[in-house]
Design a protein that fits this description.
- This protein has nine helices and no strands.
- It is mainly α.
- It folds into two domains: about 70 residues, Arc Repressor Mutant, subunit A; about 130 residues, Tetracycline Repressor, domain 2 (Orthogonal Bundle), CATH 1.10.357.
């Protein structure tokens, strides 16, 4: 009798895990399919029917997850932003001291800006609460690195680290309009030079 209760206690967890995994798979397939369709046909040409067919799910199921194409694209963008923040944290953790971490993170951020720029999709998605939240997290990450660099004497001391973090992020937004990765690297070098003491 006791063993039966133990088995019953385990089954719901397995069931819930399976359902949750299935939901994640459906959601990821929907996000990936939508972005692929938008890249191929343009933002205004994609329909929920095309997305459902491409993701291999029914339209009714799709509408259980998302209210429309824009909602799917916002969810995709939220996932991308979260992945970028995770990546920048990994870049920081792989680098050496505070200045090397700062340099590595700024370079990685500039390259992300360079690679994801100037499309109609970017204009649609770079607004909203999730973007403001991500900007705050990014500002905090850079600000922390700048504070640590200040403690080692690698950072100018006439401007507060928080202000310098804002300077870095605004300066590196220019990477989105650079013509090459070499130009992005030069932009990062100029930005870093502006952070050095006297």
């Amino acid at each position: 009798m006791t063993s039966t209760f133990r088995i019953l206690d385990v089954v719901p967890k397995l069931w819930n895990d399976t359902i949750e995994a299935h939901r994640r798979e459906v959601r990821d397939a929907t996000l990936d399919t939508t972005v692929a369709l938008v890249a191929k046909h343009g933002l205004r040409s994609v329909t929920m029917s095309q997305i459902a067919e491409g993701a291999g799910i029914g339209r009714a199921t799709l509408y259980k997850y998302f209210s429309g194409v824009e909602a799917i694209l916002v969810a995709w963008h939220e996932r991308q932003v979260a992945r970028h923040l995770e990546y920048l944290t990994e870049v920081r953790d792989r680098a050496g001291g505070a200045w090397e971490q700062l340099e590595a993170v700024l370079q990685a951020y500039a390259l992300i800006s360079y690679e994801h720029h100037g499309t109609e999709l970017a204009a649609l998605l770079h607004r909203g609460e999730h973007v403001a939240r991500a900007q705050g997290q990014l500002n905090e990450l850079i600000g922390d690195l700048l504070t640590r660099a200040a403690k080692t004497g690698d950072l100018r001391d006439d401007v507060a680290p928080g202000e310098l973090a804002t300077y870095c992020l605004h300066a590196l937004e220019a990477a989105s309009s650079m013509a090459s990765k070499a130009a992005v690297t030069r932009l990062v070098a100029v930005t870093l030079a502006g952070l050095r003491p006297g």
